[in-house]
Amino acid sequence: KRYTKGLEKSRTGFGAKINALLANFRRVDEDFFEELEETLIEADVGFETAMQISEELRQEVKLRNAKKKSDISDAIIEKLVDMYEAEGQGEYNQLHFATQGPTVVLFVGVNGVGKTTTIGKLAHRYQSQGKKVLLAAADTFRAGAIQQLVEWGKRTNVEVVAKPEKSDPAAVVFEAVKKAKAEDYDILFVDTAGRLQNKVNLMKELEKIQRVIIREIPEAPHEVILALDATTGQNALNQAKEFSQVTKVSGIALTKLDGTARGGIVLAIRNELHLPVKLVGLGEGMDDLRDFNPEEYVYGLFQ
Ligand code: GDP
Asked: What's the Enzyme Commission number for this chain (predicted)?
């Protein structure tokens, strides 16, 4: 199993480099591991994670007494998948839903990373599955953000709660949560403004939004998803660190994975931040969103 579309760049970049390393392979020596480390770092895996992978592979190779190219190749693929799954598998990588009543998913992230698009894609996904979906346009700060969400609503035939620009985001959320409860919606996606420039304000705004949600639905929000742009590499990692200080992030939506030849940021997020990547964006279209599956991803890189 692998992602068939959207990983072409990473496959011809990161994946091909690992394949080239293996193609030129003669023996597992210091040179081999050094080149592997370099390749991983170039692919945005991050220094620490690259070193850890390399170190663990050295031990694995020794343990298995692996000498053949195919054994080394298997060991690398297994290590990349293991690295990801070490902290939890299956369900852990999926969006978490309420057992009863509306599920509330809060989206955070800086401008331009693909928050609104990801919400639109999710609206399409769950609407197609017959779920009753509601969107809340609580990014009242960025010009055009409300209109953009309203358009996604039209495109996916999903209702959107919106107020004029510069309205209090918490007021939008209040109305949306009330409506979701009163009209038996299954899922409410909330778009927020991610202004990292002013962390104190952002924290206050997100706290207020969460208070409003909790008052109506005590166990909500069921997810706080941070959207990160895969093409920004290590910068995405820094954003994740900053947002984690401001709010309790429960998972990552990694967008524009189709736009990078690196793709190793997936591993860095998991290994350094201990946050699960729950969704990956593999294009601009409505259907270009997948639940993240480490095996599909890693196999997609190499095939
Ligand atoms: P927001 O400011 O975080 O809400 O970002 P937007 O949702 O407006 O997205 C910014 C741009 O990124 C838009 O042009 C989207 O079409 C594009 N985009 C979002 N997700 C993806 C993706 O997974 N792949 C690609 N190639 N483009 C994406």
From this structure: 3.6.5.4
